[in-house]
Automatic annotation (TrEMBL), chain A:
It is a multi-pass membrane protein. This is Peptide ABC transporter permease. PANTHER family: OLIGOPEPTIDE TRANSPORT SYSTEM PERMEASE PROTEIN APPC, PEPTIDE ABC TRANSPORTER PERMEASE PROTEIN. Belongs to the binding-protein-dependent transport system permease family. It comes from the Bacteria. The chain crosses the membrane at residues 20-39, 88-112, 133-157, 177-198, 205-231, 251-276.
From TrEMBL, chain B:
SMART domains: AAA. This is ABC transporter ATP-binding protein. It holds the Pfam family oligo_HPY. Keywords: ATP-binding, Nucleotide-binding, Transport. GO terms for biological process: peptide transport; transmembrane transport. One of its GO terms (molecular function) is ATP binding. Gene3D superfamilies: P-loop containing nucleotide triphosphate hydrolases. Residues 266-298, 553-572 are annotated as: Disordered. Residues 280-298 have a biased composition (Low complexity).
TrEMBL record, chain C:
PROSITE patterns: ABC_TM1 (PS50928). GO terms for molecular function: dipeptide transmembrane transporter activity. Keywords: Cell membrane, Membrane, Transmembrane, Transmembrane helix, Transport. It comes from Marinitenerispora sediminis. The keyword Membrane applies. The keyword Aminoacyl-tRNA synthetase does not apply. The chain crosses the membrane at residues 12-34, 107-127, 139-166, 178-197, 236-258, 278-301. CDD domains: TM_PBP2. This is ABC transporter permease.
């Protein structure tokens, strides 16, 4: 029964099955471009990201320096290009770490029996009681600053969310009619887990990971901005923003371009992630 | 169509109503050239399957076809005004006051977050019929009029605190609050159980005597036959037949009408196909189909439950006994029906029989050997003997698997090691359930409900079981598709000598398909016996109560030669 | 069928306390996880701390006692609301935080109000509609939700403050100086809130009961305000914890950008200087605040949705 009064035929005929809408395509292209820039910045930037030229300090954007120069006369475009790798790899790496840890904890909790489940989920509750930034700051208090430590801190901070998701998905899938059908067929338990439970759990996890990668990138830029990430003279977007902050009155471009880069990447990641999510929720349509 | 009443009596008339959803090449022409007349004190019923365009018509008549719809009509008059020219503002003034709408399930058709009283009072507020301080008293009066007991207390409650029947009455009260002249009721009783359905129908029927024009939308001919003056049958967006109720039931002219009448399983349909039946009036078993289903060989039971009890306990909640001391025996080749309302424990019984739940006491035996109380490892090699068809076919497939892989997995689990042999058998299984090889590559999501259930049955047949447990296998399907699946099960049973444990809330279906029936209520078996006997002479008051309230097609209609209960309505 | 209200309340309270206890345990672990002598950790990189001071710290923290005694002592202190002593600032931690509490609360509340107003306006104006305005607004929300708040602050300062002089620059005081920081903090939160709110409103507008309501003659505004908004409030409440977290972490960055005093900056400098007692206090306090928010939300659910009052039976 179609509750909206739209005949089922209308819903079924709602469109060709496999057409990716333009927004995710554009977003995917943008991400691809940033990935190439991160891997090979020298293809794009003629100038060195670290060579200072005090004679050419604080030049506004122009033909020689498309994004202008900073207080030390370094080319901002080159610094943005070379900053892509540290800025993006921390966020992506942290997400991978979070997914790995979270999946491990979540599966152990779901399969490991009641007591273990209770204890682990309490621990996860505690982890979820903190904003990720605060959790990351606690970890950084112990580890001290540095890009690798930022990666570890964000990954640890993100893990409780994944653990919760993995556990609840496993529980849902385990009770599903198709797992019941597999039991009826006489398929051994471990095989059911391998064939049905895990693949159907990891779908939503990968979607969440895609969307959260954006958050992780913002977070890593934020921690770098606060001075916990790469140290000067490294080129990293958060750090550049922080350095540019002191020269806002005279040179807006130093801080604006790296921030725009972060925003563009995160918007693109979000668009792709949402499209993946819509696909997962709505099936092949 | 001859207009007999005076023009004053004509509340609603529409000519050539067209409704299109979407635009351009993707547009779906849902309703084509529908013409209707509704007079004061008259009940017109529109009957059709889902997708026939009847709901879209109902909504469009209240100006609520939705933003995606384009509505057009050659002429359209509502209460003497030209409705084709109505602006949204005009509609707002007419809705509630001139034309009221009652929708299917009041649980979702009343705002769940507001009190029943606030919902009933809303038309009074919107149309400024009564000042705020006098509305409460009017709400109580309206609820009382709609047959809601203790209307004062009910008005302060929320929809979820009311039973389905009371909710539906409250919804009717809210639709009638501003005294509309026309009431459109879209499947107003579909979500209700048979007893309550009867009461609500009587309430609606009684409204006509006050001069209300009632437009009743339903998929169920038996339901509308009781109160409608005229019936219009819709199919594929058109009205294919219209006429007085008695004539439609007695002498259906259009094949779709006959199909609708025939798809109602009931007392006279045993042993004959429900779908694609020969034209009416040749009713009665055709020789080829009349072959009686195989009779139980009287030998040892393939599946038996002895005093099985299952209690569900949750921390902080009192324990609930889902199944209480149930014993039943299923002989080889026999079809045993288990009937009961939702919550009667019949689905739990299915899980116990499948060895998917351990009983708290009692035993289940399969082919004479213990089946319950074993470790799963010991049960696994014997699982091929008993297979399950679940209610929701879509949910029973791994969403990532195409049909071919679904069947392949089942065949591999059944011990078929050779890959090409598996492929051949998968195709053969599909053929057995009336699908072709082309479906192997499709995903379940792309199939229709009936096709999905066919795939589920094919999968269940893969290990060549002796017993098929079917848990409400047709309750999620449309009447005509339901008929096809029932026919399929009947045929498979005959061809393969399958024993069937058929669980359903639909006595009509069970009567059609099964040899014996077990009636469950509150977790216990209240009646058991040959299906004919239970049907004709129910012994337990509960069975009787169920049967008594079932709407039936009147005697002499094309589907029912004799009076008798037709079917329990689909309550999902 | 359901556990009685007091029992459920007691259970909630217990699990809230468990979370705070977990936070206290984490902060205890932090101190002992830092490599080297905990005394050094507590003192921070204070060059040339005198042996007397070191001895005093050792005695105060009972560092000679067995680990479990130290742990219990730490918990007992917390229970007595004793947050310890910041050696770096040479003041009680409670005083340090109390000084900085008000500016942060002021900023957070202003941002919250602003975010709710922005999100509510955007969502109500576009829910259930199609066309260009909706596309533009949802695009803006997408960018708003993705943009790093510190960058919003930097851009706002550059143009609104330095270029056009509409608002005072960093370090200013007074209500006028609150506008830019609050806006900066509100933008990412408003972006997400608006998206969720509109999705919920759209969902609600698609529900069958809305057809009933419209069939009574209620117009679009009436449906949205009298019916849909309340339905959308339920999922919005779920976001309350997230909003709180967003405000908390947002203040850390925004206060730094605008050189405002507040808890966020105290925390950043404490983490930088490894002022462990301050870090630990912030950890425990924010966990306590978070569980309080969640307890309040839990109670509010019941007010908004009567179905939850009745039963949580299976």
């Amino acid at each position: 029964m179609t509750t909206l009064g739209v005949p089922e035929a209308a819903l079924r005929a709602a469109g060709p099955r496999w057409r990716v809408p333009p927004a995710p395509v554009l977003a995917g292209t943008v991400l691809l471009l940033f990935a190439v820039v991160a891997a090979r910045p020298e293809w794009f930037a003629v100038h060195s990201p670290t060579a200072s030229d005090l004679g050419a300090a604080l030049r506004p954007p122009g033909p020689e320096h498309p994004f202008g120069t900073d207080q030390l006369g370094r080319d901002v475009f080159a610094r943005v290009a070379h900053g892509a790798w540290p800025s993006l790899s921390i966020g992506v790496g942290a997400t991978a770490l979070g997914v790995l840890l979270g999946t491990a904890v979540g599966s152990v909790s779901a399969f490991g029996g009641r007591l273990l489940d209770r204890v682990m989920m309490r621990a996860v509750d505690v982890g979820l009681a903190f904003p990720e930034l605060l959790l990351a700051l606690i970890v950084l208090t112990v580890l001290g600053p540095g890009p690798v430590n930022v990666l570890v801190a964000i990954g640890l901070a993100a893990a409780p969310g994944y653990a919760r998701l993995v556990r609840s998905r496993v529980l849902v899938v385990r009770e599903s009619a198709y797992v019941q059908a597999a039991v009826v067929m006489g398929i051994p338990r471990p095989l059911i887990v391998l064939r049905h439970v895990l693949p159907n759990t990891l779908g939503p996890v990968s979607v969440l990971a895609t969307i959260s990668a954006g958050t992780a990138i913002v977070l890593s830029a934020g921690l770098s901005f606060l001075g916990f990430g790469p140290q000067p003279p490294a080129a990293e977007w958060g750090l550049m923003l922080s350095e540019g902050r002191d020269h806002l009155q005279r040179a807006w471009w130093i801080a604006v371009f790296p921030g725009a880069a972060v925003t563009t990447v995160v918007v693109a990641v979000t668009v792709v992630g949402r499209w993946l999510k819509a696909r997962l929720d709505g099936g092949p349509q | 169509m001859t207009d007999t009443g005076t023009d004053d009596d004509l509340l609603l008339s529409v000519d050539g109503l067209d409704i299109t959803f979407g635009r351009g090449r993707r547009a779906v022409h849902a309703v084509r050239g529908v013409s209707l007349r509704l007079r004061r004190g008259e009940c017109l019923a529109i009957v059709g399957e889902s997708g026939s365009g009847k709901s879209a018509t109902a909504r469009a008549l209240a100006g609520l076809a939705g933003p995606a719809a384009t509505v057009a009509a050659r002429a359209w008059r509502l209460l003497g005004r030209n409705a084709a020219r109505f602006t949204e503002r005009d509609w707002r003034a007419v809705r509630g006051r001139g034309i009221g709408l009652v929708l299917q399930d009041a649980l979702v058709s009343l705002d769940p977050l507001r009190t029943v009283g606030a919902e009933v009072a809303e038309p009074l507020r919107v149309h400024r019929i009564l000042p705020r301080d006098r509305r409460a008293a009017e709400v109580v009066r309206l609820l009382d009029e709609a047959g809601v007991p203790e209307p004062g207390e009910r008005a302060a409650q929320h929809p979820h605190e009311l039973s389905g029947g009371l909710r539906q009455r409250a919804l009717i009260a809210s639709a009638l609050a501003a005294r509309p002249a026309v009431l459109v009721a879209d499947e107003p009783t579909t979500a209700l159980d048979v007893v309550v359905q009867d009461q609500v129908l009587r309430l609606l029927g009684g409204l006509r005597s006050d001069g209300l024009g009632l437009l009743l939308i339903s998929h169920d001919l038996a339901v509308v036959a009781r109160i409608a003056d005229r019936i219009a049958v819709m199919h594929d967006g058109r009205i294919v037949e219209e006429g007085p109720t008695a004539r439609i039931l007695d002498r259906p002219a259009h094949p779709r009408t006959r199909a609708l009448l025939a798809a109602v399983p009931g007392p006279t349909t045993r042993g004959r196909r429900l779908s694609d039946r020969a034209p009416a009036r040749t009713a009665g078993p055709t020789p080829a189909e009349a072959a009686a289903p195989p009779h139980p060989d009287g030998g040892a039971a393939v599946l038996a439950c002895e005093g099985v009890t299952k209690v569900f306990a949750r921390a902080g909640h009192p324990a609930r006994t889902a199944v209480r001391d149930v014993s039943l025996r299923l002989a080889a080749g026999e079809a045993l029906g288990v009937v009961g309302e939702s919550g009667s424990g019949k689905s739990t019984l299915a899980l116990l029989a499948m060895g998917l739940l351990p009983p708290d006491s009692g035993t289940v035996t399969l082919e004479g050997r213990p089946w319950s109380g074993l470790p799963e490892r010991a049960r696994r090699p014997r699982r091929s003997a008993v297979q399950l068809v679940q209610q929701d076919p879509l949910g029973s497939f791994d969403p990532r698997y195409p049909v071919g892989r679904v069947l392949d997995e089942a065949l591999r689990a059944a011990g078929e090691r050779d890959r090409s042999r598996r492929r051949a058998r998968a195709a053969a299984l599909l053929a057995q359930v009336g699908l072709d090889e082309g479906h192997l590559r499709r995903r379940p999501l792309e199939l229709s409900g009936g096709q999905r259930q066919r795939v589920a049955i094919a999968r269940a047949l893969a290990p060549r079981p002796r017993v098929l447990v079917c848990d409400e296998p047709v309750s999620a399907l449309d009447a005509s598709v339901q008929a096809q699946i029932i026919d399929l099960l009947t045929r498979l049973r005959r061809e393969l000598g399958l024993a069937l444990l058929f669980i359903s809330h639909d006595l009509g279906v069970v009567h059609h398909l099964c040899d014996r029936v077990v009636v469950m209520h509150g977790g216990a078996v209240v009646e058991e016996g040959p299906v004919e006997r239970v049907w004709r002479a129910p012994a337990h008051p509960h069975t009787e109560r169920l049967l008594a309230a079932v709407p039936a097609l009147p005697p002499g209609s094309a589907a029912g030669e004799r009076p008798g209960p037709a079917r329990l309505p689909g309550a999902t | 069928m359901t556990p009685s209200l007091p029992r459920r309340a007691a259970r909630r309270l217990l699990s809230a306390l468990l979370v705070v206890w977990g936070a206290a345990t984490i902060s205890f672990c932090v101190l002992h996880l830092i490599p080297g002598d905990p005394v050094d950790a507590v003192l921070g990189p204070l060059v040339g701390a005198s042996p007397e001071l070191r001895a005093r710290v050792r005695a105060e923290l009972g560092l000679d006692a067995p680990l479990w005694v130290q742990y219990l002592t730490a918990l007992a202190r917390l229970a007595a609301l004793d947050l310890g002593w910041s050696y770096r600032l040479d003041r009680p931690v409670a005083d340090v935080l109390a000084d900085q509490l008000w500016p942060t609360v002021e900023l957070a509340v202003a941002a919250l109000v602003l975010a709710v107003l922005l999100a509510g306006t955007a969502a109500l104006a576009t829910a259930g509609r199609r066309g260009l305005p909706r596309a533009v607004i949802s695009g803006a929300e997408l960018v708003g939700a993705a943009v790093p708040s510190f960058w919003v602050g930097v851009v706002a300062l550059t143009f609104l403050s330095f270029r056009w002089g509409l608002f005072p620059g960093p370090g200013a005081v007074g209500p006028h100086a609150l506008v830019l920081p609050a806006l900066t903090l509100a933008v990412p939160i408003a972006g997400v809130l608006a998206q969720v709110l509109r999705r919920e409103l759209d969902d609600t507008l698609g529900q069958p009961f809305v057809t009933s309501v419209r069939a009574r003659g209620v117009g679009r505004t009436g449906v949205l305000v009298r019916h849909a908004l309340r339905h959308a409030a339920v999922p919005l409440l779920t976001l309350a914890g997230w909003v709180f977290a967003g405000l908390l972490s947002g203040t850390v960055l925004v206060e730094t950008v605008f050189a405002r005093p507040g808890l966020g900056r105290v925390l950043v400098s404490a983490v930088t200087a490894r002022d462990i007692p301050v870090v630990n206090a912030v950890v425990v306090i924010s966990a306590a605040a978070f569980v309080t928010v969640n307890l309040a939300v839990d109670a509010l659910y019941r007010v908004v949705d009567p179905r939850l009052r009745a039963s949580e039976a299976p």
